[in-house]
Write a structure and sequence with these properties.
Layout lengths: L4 E4 L2 H11 L2 E4 L3 E4 L4 E9 L10 E9 L2 E7 L9 E13 L2 E8 L4 E6 L4 E11 L16
Antiparallel strand pairs: 1-10, 2-7, 3-4, 4-5, 5-10, 6-9, 7-8, 8-9
């Protein structure tokens, strides 16, 4: 499969990217907020949901970043443990004063990162390496976590 490259400029676009990043694993050390550049970036190992179900599951190295970032808040994540691994469940967006708002990256076990943006300007791009995944992720039918 070709490398996937997506851009989000509105909440609907962000929902599509969120679906592709569902179950991505992220090392805490691969998360960066660059306030002078107004950028928030992550390198993740995303589960390749678009691969056929009759083939072995695989993961892909993927980069994503938000531009026009005003601030970032973190809850439930030990930022000092750079080797800790997080499981990204979803990315949501709440508009505050159009077009600005807050994108929330929701992780398993209650962790979350809120990214305040002037507007949605986000990109996701596969970086190349692909490898076999240990298994296909499954989800309990439990309610989503509340606001950060």
């Amino acid at each position: 499969m070709d490398l996937l490259k997506l851009v989000a400029l509105d909440p609907e676009d962000l929902t599509v990217i969120s679906m592709h990043l569902q179950d991505a694993v992220v090392r805490v050390g691969d998360i960066a907020y660059l306030p002078k550049e107004r950028c928030f970036a992550i390198v993740a190992r995303r589960f390749d949901w678009e691969s056929r179900s009759d083939t072995p599951p695989q993961r892909r190295l993927t980069g994503m970043h938000f531009q026009q970032v005003k601030g970032v808040r973190v809850r439930g994540i030990d930022q000092t443990n750079k080797d800790a691994v997080l499981n990204l469940l979803a990315i949501s967006f709440e508009e505050t004063n159009a077009p600005s708002g807050t994108a929330t990256l929701i992780f398993a076990e209650g962790g979350a990162i809120q990214v305040d943006v002037d507007c949605i300007e986000m990109q996701m791009k596969d970086l190349g390496p692909v490898w076999a995944a240990e298994n296909r992720p499954t989800h309990d039918e439990t309610p989503a976590a509340g606001p950060v």
